[in-house]
Amino acid sequence: MKCYLLYCCLCPKDYCIPKKRLVEYWFCEVLLNEFDRISEAQMQGDHIIYSLISACLLENVGEIDGEDCVKMHDVIRDMTLWITREFEATENNFFGKTGAQVFEESNVKAWENIKRISVMENKIEVLKETPKCPNLRTLFLSQNELQVISDGFFQFIPHPTVLDLSGNL
User: Entry's SUPFAM superfamilies (predicted)?
Assistant: First the structure.
């Protein structure tokens, strides 16, 4: 359950996370690896989300734009962010700079050993560097102002499984 909860902290503060999309991310990340089909994984994912809601670790916010959504309470999100920093030597390496209003990608050299990166809800227009991220599996770049991604940006990211570019210009 810990890895499912920690995955949610990749989203910005007060962000409404569509349940279906969250389960799809988990499925692509092979966190729901006992299933071969997304429909089976969706049922298991719904059960996990329900368990997290029952434990008051996620809040059910209902339907937004036609999608059933959840979000993390600010205190729970702060706790999960602390956990990701405190235990960054574990297999769940995270990097997040969400909603910080940054205008360019942060120090991509720091991304080298990270598995999951989120820079959602910023003002990034151009990704010009070429990060070396051999372990990167999840990259959330959504809700920025991305106009240009350099040709070499994905060159040294050999196995991305989740890439979210939604909500850009």
Answer: L domain-like
> 33 burial class (0-12, 13-18, 19+ CB within 10 angstroms)?
exposed
Residue of 52, 66, 57 whose CA lies nearest to 21:
66
Contact between residue 149 and residue 130 where contact means Cβ atoms under 8 Å apart: no
As a dihedral over the C-alpha atoms of residue 75, residue 79, residue 81, residue 84, rounded to 10 degrees, the angle is: -170
Mean pLDDT (the chain) is 88
Residues 31, 5 contacting (CB under 8 angstroms)? no
Token pair in block for residue 100: 């910080």
Listed by start position, the domains of the chain span 2-71, 93-164
